[in-house]
């Protein structure tokens, strides 16, 4: 189909929810994607931190194809081997006790919120408050968009579910002021993604943990974006040795197959009984096979370590650009391969220019260039990106 025809059909038949770039992508290989005109792009967005193994990783493709031949879906009324195996793996990796599988980040967070509410009700009927952070992002369902403390995502959807309170991120005093016996849970990203790659001060998460313990509130960490090896450890909370009561994950987990997970401690998940929560598609054999393959490759190819190493290299390279473009670049921040460059002005034009120059990057929170590439990239790919950025920044 002609590119113009694809765009015309989309604009006629698809809900007008996305501001799309004027290219039609067709396939990918490793850290590269191609459009229908055959143009090649270096992919440092990776489906927004999803294609953790890059595109077309043979192990992932094979796992999906093999499983598709056996069985794509069956009901959660029956046991499947893949689901049990994946559950065991996620329990081992996270240090929590039990898992529920969903299909997306928002669904994982929705499950976390429901679990926290059920648990807290056992302590006291009015223990319903859930505290989240400004500039957070937790998803697009009504409860998760309410947890997402950004008015632009909530506008027009009122009345929103009750019981949510917002505090500034990385501000322990603000949290301490709001918390009380009525607090059921504090829900935070271990590193904020959509909010601009915001990394809390060392010690912040431990202090939040202590406050949660003081008020018998649960600590829910949303690792949907920063989890799955991206920051150099399997989960970002492991940098500080903090143990959440509930953790959610999704994006990188299936390497591109839709899957999300919520894990809780035994103490907390006791609040759930059969029928309290569920999903038709969640934990289906195809998604589980993909996630098992992704986790196996992450382990064998030491991808968290690679993310750490290449991330350091990339941060240094970006720092090196700062003195060359002081009127553009304000700060460089990140952990592993979750990196943000805060600009002195909106980043939209730079993202568009990078697209023309052959790189997919993204700007979040208006003025933060965000880089969340596949975790198996090498130094040469970073060099290639930096060369493209230099070209773009020189003209910006
Ligand atoms: C992307 C994201 C979500 C939502 O995930 P979906 O799969 O789009 O529902 C939730 N939390 C964080 C931190 C995210 O980055």
From TrEMBL:
Keyword Transferase on entry: yes
N6-(pyridoxal phosphate)lysine-modified residues are 251
Which pathway, per its entry?
Amino-acid biosynthesis; L-arginine biosynthesis; N(2)-acetyl-L-ornithine from L-glutamate: step 4/4; Amino-acid biosynthesis; L-proline biosynthesis; L-glutamate 5-semialdehyde from L-ornithine: step 1/1
Which InterPro entries does UniProt cross-reference here?
AcOrn/SuccOrn_fam, Aminotrans_3, Aminotrans_3_PPA_site, Class-III_PLP-dep_AT, Orn_aminotrans, PyrdxlP-dep_Trfase, PyrdxlP-dep_Trfase_major, PyrdxlP-dep_Trfase_small
Which Pfam families does the record associate with it? Aminotran_3 (PF00202)
- Tell me where it resides: Cytoplasm
Main location group: cytoplasm
Known catalytic reactions? N(2)-acetyl-L-ornithine + 2-oxoglutarate = N-acetyl-L-glutamate 5-semialdehyde + L-glutamate
Q: Which residues bind pyridoxal 5'-phosphate?
A: 105-106, 137, 222-225, 280
Q: Which residues bind N(2)-acetyl-L-ornithine?
A: 140, 279
Gene3D superfamilies associated with the record: Aspartate Aminotransferase, domain 1, Type I PLP-dependent aspartate aminotransferase-like (Major domain)
Q: Which UniProt keywords apply?
A: Amino-acid biosynthesis, Aminotransferase, Arginine biosynthesis, Cytoplasm, Pyridoxal phosphate, Transferase
Cofactor(s) for this UniProt protein: pyridoxal 5'-phosphate
* Something else known: May also have succinyldiaminopimelate aminotransferase activity, thus carrying out the corresponding step in lysine biosynthesis.
Q: How does it assemble?
A: Homodimer.
- Family classification: Belongs to the class-III pyridoxal-phosphate-dependent aminotransferase family. ArgD subfamily.
Instruction: Write the protein's name.
Output: Acetylornithine aminotransferase
| Organism (species) | Acetonema longum DSM 6540
The coding gene here is argD
